[in-house]
Amino acid sequence: MKNLIASILLIVSFQFAKAQDLETILLAADDASLLSQNYLKPAMEGLMYSMNGSWATTAKVHKKFGFDLTIGVNASLVPDKAKAFAFVPSDYSYLTLANNETELQTVMSEDDSEVMVNVKIPNENGNGTYRVVSFTMPGGITEDLPVNAVPAPVVQIGFGLPFKTDIKARFVPTQRYDDVEAKLLGFGLQHDLTQYLGIIDKSPLSVSVLGAFTNMSVTYDMDDQDASDNVQVINGEAEFKMNTWTVQALASLDFKFLTIYGSAGYNSGKTTAKMKGDYILTYDIEDENGNPAGLPEDVNITDPVNLDFEANGMRATLGMRLNLSIFKIFADYTFQNYNTATVGIAFSVR
Predict the structure, then answer these.
(1) Fewest C-beta atoms under 10 Å: which of 15, 130, 156, 312?
(2) How many domains, the chain?
């Protein structure tokens, strides 16, 4: 299990490795937050959809004191429209693109080309000079991934309570890979409705309801590895905290060797993304005609970025589970804003 968790964390790490390049976006001054938000949005949204997956592979709950251990992975597929974002000059106060491009790649693009961004900020002393600098906007990372998807791990325990109710918990202890640290914690309740439906209680059909919550956090140490990028990093860190909720109605046909299951429900999620630490930004000084007008200036900033992301919407899942005594193999597909594929195994004692 430890190797599986480490492998999934490695994939997640690739998605946040570009945080090392995000330090240069701080040169955009007041425009840095909007630029970072547009760039990171599909990774943040994809993670929230992945985190709400695979809470149940049957609508049938455990008998009292029954239990299961489930291990798997959810992978939310990134839609084409989320792989790039339009660059609208009027949305930014100080930025232009060096080659007049009309769009930039997001972190979840296959295009890893970097685009030059020019920054021109009026100097506060009112002497008609400007702080100017150029930096490269990082491209996408998915050329480094097996598939253009945002994964989330599933390590989950279910336990049968009285009144035909299951309590579920998923937990990935703190894992670290190079400069990335991640952990996950979630809880859910599933209650059987078949018991209230009379004769259906004796058929292979099971019906239940589920509610669940998940929290995941990822931090990335931002080392100052490039002395020539006009940004000096002091104790820099990128921090991502995600909270997701889901409510679902489930139905399944449970046979000896095969379970066919499905669900319909609603997802909700919120994420905060922060860049913490102290940063020293170095700008050249020019006049309005682009001529040098003084020595370079340093600007000191602290904890410069605090972003919020949300992902909400309906969901519907279809799946199948192979039952080999207490050993289960399952796969399903969820239709939502970021369609999500899930595979995994489970050990279940009813």
Answers:
(1) 312
(2) 1
